[in-house]
Amino acid sequence: MSDPGSTLRGVSRVIQLEEWRRRHRPAVDTRARANVPSTADRLQEIVERLDPLVRFGSGKLAKGVETELLAIIGAVQAGRLDQALGRAERLATRLQHPSARAAR
After folding, report:
1. More confident call, 87 vs 5
2. Which pLDDT belongs to residue 53?
3. DSSP state at residue 6
4. Against a cut of 0.85, is the pTM above it?
5. For residue 33, what pLDDT is reported?
6. Could you count the other beta carbons within 10 Å of the beta carbon of residue 87?
7. CA–CA separation, 98 and 104 (whole Å)
8. What is the pLDDT of residue 6?
9. Which residues lie below 8 Å from residue 40, measured CB to CB, with a gap of 6+?
10. What is the DSSP letter of 79?
11. In sequence order, which residues have a C-beta less than 8 Å from that of residue 61 and are 6 or more positions away?
12. What does the alpha-carbon distance between residue 3 and residue 13 come to, in Å, rounded to a whole number?
């Protein structure tokens, strides 16, 4: 019985991520041209909004809040800024609700 052919033909090819990003990045960033804040800028604004909301209180975070903060950190570390932004916006909205303030 003969060995089957390799199914991993392209495995030896090295991909340079920076080169790939340059080739796949749009020539002109339409957000920057339209003066729209980037996802990273919007995320920074939300984090600045979240900071006093999680610092205010007993010093101990509710499990759900801690879980969301860890998920936001994980999304940022994985480069998923859109996902992190969405989670951060929802958490900030939740923590700014009057019932959340009463519970602290």
Report:
1. 87
2. 83
3. P
4. no
5. 60
6. 21
7. 10
8. 54
9. 81
10. T
11. 54, 69
12. 23
- Type of residue found at 41: D
pLDDT tens for 18-65 read 676 677 666 555 555 666 688 888 999 998 898 888 876 666 778 888
Helix and strand totals (H; E) in the chain: 6, 0
* In the block, residue with structure tokens 């950190």: 73
CA gap 88, 48 in Å, rounded: 10
Beta-carbon count within 10 A of 72 CB:
23
State which amino acid sits at residue 27. A
The DSSP string of 17-61 is HHHHHHHHS-SS-HHHHTTPPPHHHHHHHHHHHHHHHHHSSSS--
How far apart (Å, rounded) are the C-alpha atoms in residues 86 and 80? 10
Contact 22, 15 (CB under 8 A): no
Distance CA 36, CA 57 (A): 34
